[in-house]
Amino acid sequence: MPNFIFDGNWVEYGAFFHGVIYVAWRIWRTRRSPEIAAPVRAEEFAFGVGLFPQYLLLLSVMSSTIVEGLAQSSQLSLCVAGSYALAAMWQERKSGYSLAR
């Protein structure tokens, strides 16, 4: 597969918009329940921001240019995505679910 030019600056914008869209989707989905508190919305926003770079990391098997572009230009998004991935791994280990199989 040929390499292409990857401008990682759009990753920050994509992560921000993905966070906003994710919060809007969660509000729409829970519209019948009581009002969502502001800290919960902030947590949902951070979760949405963290998902976008992880989608791109899934595509990194196709080209090393994606990984290099992510590492050079979007450290904040990768930090949020990595922290959520790490927290999910620790939660999985803490619950013992993976060991009980």
Can you tell me about this structure?
The structure is a single chain. By secondary structure, the protein is mainly α. The protein is built from 4 helices and no strands. It has helices spanning 9-29, 38-59, 64-73, 75-95. The longest helix is centred in the middle third of the chain and has 22 residues, at 38-59. The termini are far apart.
Shape: globular
Q: Name the helicity range.
A: over 70%
* Structural class by secondary-structure content: mainly alpha
Distance between the terminal alpha carbons, to the nearest Å? 39 Å
Which structural traits does this protein have?
single chain, mainly alpha, 101 residues
In brief:
By secondary structure, the protein is an all-alpha fold.
Topology:
Layout: H1 9-29, H2 38-59, H3 64-73, H4 75-95
